[in-house]
Amino acid sequence: MTLLDPGMDLTLRPMRYPAFFDRFKDAIKNTWTVEEVDLHSDLADLAKLSPAERHLVSRLVAFFATGDTIVANNLVLNLYQHVNSPEGRLYLSRQLFEEAVHVQFYLNLLDTYVPDERERHDAFAAVENIPSIARKAEFCFKWIDSIFSLRELRTREDRRAFLLNLICFAACIEGLFFYGAFAYVYFLRSRGLLHGLASGTNWVFRDESMHMAFAFDVVETVRREEPDLFDDELTAAVTEMLAEAVECEVGFAEDLLEQGISGLSLSDMRAYLEHVADRRLATLGLPPVYGSRNPFAFMELQDVQELSNFFERRVSAYQVGVTGTVSFDDDF
Amino acid sequence: MTVTQEKTVPEQRRHVMQVRKRNGDLEPVDVNKIVKAVERWVGDLDEVDPLRVATRTITGLYDGATTAELDKLSIQTAAELTGEEPQYSRLAARLLAAYVDKEVRGQGVATFSQSIRYAHQLGLIGDETAAFVARNARKLDDAVDLRNDQKFEYFGLRTVADRYLLKHPETRLVVETPQYWLLRVACGLSTNPGEAIGFYRLMSSLAYLPSSPTLFNSGTRHTQMSSCFLVDSPRDELDSIYERYHQVAKLSKFSGGIGISWSRIRGRGALIRGTNGRSNGIVPFLRTLDAGVAAVNQGGRRKGAACVYLEPWHPDVEEFLELRDNTGEESRRTHNLNLANWIPDEFMRRVEADGDWSLIDPSDAPELPDLHGEAFDEAYRAAEKKAVKTVKARDLYARMMRTLAQTGNGWMTFKDRSNALSNQVGAPGNTIHLSNLCTEILEVNSDDETAVCNLGSVNLAAHVTADGIDWDKLRATVRTAVVFLDRVIDINYYPSAQAAASNPRWRPVGLGLMGLQDVFFARRLAFDSDEARELSTRIQEEILLTALETSAGLAAEFGAHPAFAETRAAGGALHPDLWGATPTQTDRWASLRQRVAEHGLRNSLLVAIAPTATIASIAGCYECIEPQVSNLFKRETMSGEFLQINTYLVRELKVRGLWTAETRERIKRAEGSVQDIASLPAQVREVFRTAWELPQRALIDLAAARAPYVDQSQSLNLFLSAPTIGKLSSMYLYAWKSGLKTTYYLRSRPATRIQQATVAIVAPDAVACSLENPESCEACQ
């Protein structure tokens, strides 16, 4: 039996994919709740923003309002159905919970940042009304719909379609759209702005990193089990899909940055997105398309250990679910 | 904010990028002009390339940006190159200093005395300091040494500029330069210009810095300069509880950190005679405290902060340990309070012996919080027959360990040791009831005395030369520091009557240190080596000895502190004696004893090692006694994010021709560790281990070795990447057995991390078995 064979496997012993189970356990240690993030401290910053920055934040909030819900929908409608491993489904259940927390976090963000009821409604309507956001949403819907009618992955074509959906959500949506959004948040953070948003985003980012890693685990598992699915045709489709995602996200950047933000030029943003896209290709074992370097030093900062002054911020470095019993001769 | 719906038309894109000058005119961006502006500040920085800063600045710019935006962006751009070459941090600091200077001069301020006059008119500077500066304007103006701006690293100066320099109340422009600020702090504590200039020079050289409240408030209209307040538990009645809320709010408003005990308040289910109802326990009251602390904003500089201490026999101790959990009922959580356990030895003994532990309601045994040592043991055993509940001591201990692992909070502090080894506990009735927000202050208090401590720290990095420690300089620094710490006590504004009642009587101060790791790097000592431990102990002996000598000198001049008769020093016992330690400088100790016998001491306590988070950043050194957390990390503060790189390591790598893009990437990938860089000799790698790679036993051993020369205590953090109950329970038992009075945070790391965005991807790995991490892999089972 392979991972994509149709069915609802229930067998956890022997466990076929223990790495999925490990991811499930690791994810639990990273549990966080929306109440831990203090967004009210951001209100003073919002008042200080320039019109150009305010426009950027407003667009971001509108994107966040619906982004994670879309991902959750695809998880339920497509991924859970076809990843036929109970331990894999355990992880996906956990991921679903995390997406729900993210949705709640961004809802809380919206309610805090946008006091006006009408404007809150507008933010949710952005997915239809604001062209740069609508375009990204259409891209997502297209790929959700691409396999929505598939109840079982019988043929080679079915499985290839499933892989494209999976790769789309991991590499393009979580791996590129969200990474684009994170860059704006961390840019503001590096300027000392919107710490509340950034600390919540740190946690979201940590979760999303796991989601991507799990999805790529699934891809690699399928590659091992059914290597012939991975042919030139798939490569071409993935590359084309990613190129389309980059263009969607660059369009979003043009909108966000249209009034000019010092330190965040459109050309740098494009280079960053291309760099991220190349990384997704590399993870899939595919050659780079763009050859762009990361221009943002503030993103490099995300790659090193954080040290917070506890007077100022909650430290996001602790784990839950610590185990063991009292002993006096453990090594430390 | 609002959600923008309308689509604004983008400005016409021009071929040549333009900037808007301060007078409103547009001019083309000229790379040469930026290069020139940067070059002016290069000076001795031979590794920086102004053209690189200029071109990268232009790439990040947008058409029509203002020149002010251009200036700010060039500072930021220079700072962002720090990861490749640490000298860029210096360059960015100089560009920032120039920017700040321009801002101050733009308001018509050209000298120090003018800045004081201006800030006085704005209502920021106190009358006395304004008059002092006006009287001595020429001398003070001449003392300003602008060259010392060059001593700052970017992160330090950014912190100073954003949070320490006084700002115009309306425009929010800074009204003093970094050097004016330090001179202002000195003037606020001085009685004559010579003294002020001497103190200014010491601070300006970054060899010593007082703690943040002094740096914020000295010379201003609100001279609250103390860092720490230790508030006794409210009495077990409503009025007292609400009085404490009020007191905490007042203390918090002026930058103080609060420690407050809650051990006297009856637990859940205890009878309330007045209403014949049952108590809801301590949690609802702590929720109110939590909200109160969060509501107080310390002048926009930081939020209020408090730590609650509870003794482990309190019936609500289990709920107390859950106050910071991130799951469970929100109405029983306090996200802003820090938590500490105030632990009697009897508890640890029962943990060791696997015995039972009785939870006793304070309304049944109100004497317990005031007892320690054998008197406590007896009273506790007697009260056990009234126990509300009995638990296994080890179960409660395990619960404490879990809280530490999951939140870093629930600090382990030891009541009996703290009392037995305190100079202040020399007369019956004097009890230390808790420590403070950072677990380095141990002072007696009571219902009507709130203990106060003002702090400062010697920067050891500024006292180490190629030949070792500059002992003469260290002594001189300590002498000046103690005089000015003592001075704060008289000038200080006390936000509560209880604080004003305590401090003049005991006159405690807390002289600490920072940059111990710098010393070890400079001397190429491994943190866990015998030499390191010995050196750290000798430094500590020198600091305590010199501080006591200075205090005895002040006593000869101004008299002993009023409560001197109640101290152990009055009976002839100094702190090393309480420990049974054998000091090395026997002659100096002997003559010190004579002077103390003759004049007493001006200060009941002198040394406390505080965490120094912010002032170490300003001074550009490692925090207090801590090992480095990483060779490469970022700091997150209210000012933004800052890359910090170990410059000692960079120097070492450069000498070996190893400071390359490849090495940098490897260090980043290894999360700041150099243990995998095989081309570095093992001995060097040993020196550059991080806190996560050091045996924690060594940190405890170092702390215990210097403890005889720390008459209060130390903010000792411990580090475990992946804590387990077994490791933690072993570690804290060892800390207790080593005789430490207190410990501080347990630092740990997240279970998984954000995927690195800028290090190269390693090609897909086909092996399913994770041999590197067999514990979490079931494939082999």
TrEMBL record, chain A:
InterPro entries on file: Ferritin-like_SF, RNR-like, RNR_small, RNR_small_fam
TM regions (residue ranges): 161-187
Catalytic activity: a 2'-deoxyribonucleoside 5'-diphosphate + [thioredoxin]-disulfide + H2O = a ribonucleoside 5'-diphosphate + [thioredoxin]-dithiol
Keyword Transmembrane helix in annotation: yes
Top-level class of the enzyme under EC nomenclature: oxidoreductase
Pfam families (UniProt xref): Ribonuc_red_sm (PF00268)
Free-text remark on how the cofactor is bound: Binds 2 iron ions per subunit.
Organism superkingdom: Bacteria
Record-listed E.C. numbers: 1.17.4.1
Keywords: Deoxyribonucleotide synthesis, Iron, Membrane, Metal-binding, Oxidoreductase, Transmembrane, Transmembrane helix
Cofactor needs: Fe cation
Oligomeric and partner information: Tetramer of two alpha and two beta subunits.
Job of this protein: Provides the precursors necessary for DNA synthesis. Catalyzes the biosynthesis of deoxyribonucleotides from the corresponding ribonucleotides.
Family: Belongs to the ribonucleoside diphosphate reductase small chain family.
Protein's UniProt name: Ribonucleoside-diphosphate reductase subunit beta
Gene name of this polypeptide: nrdB
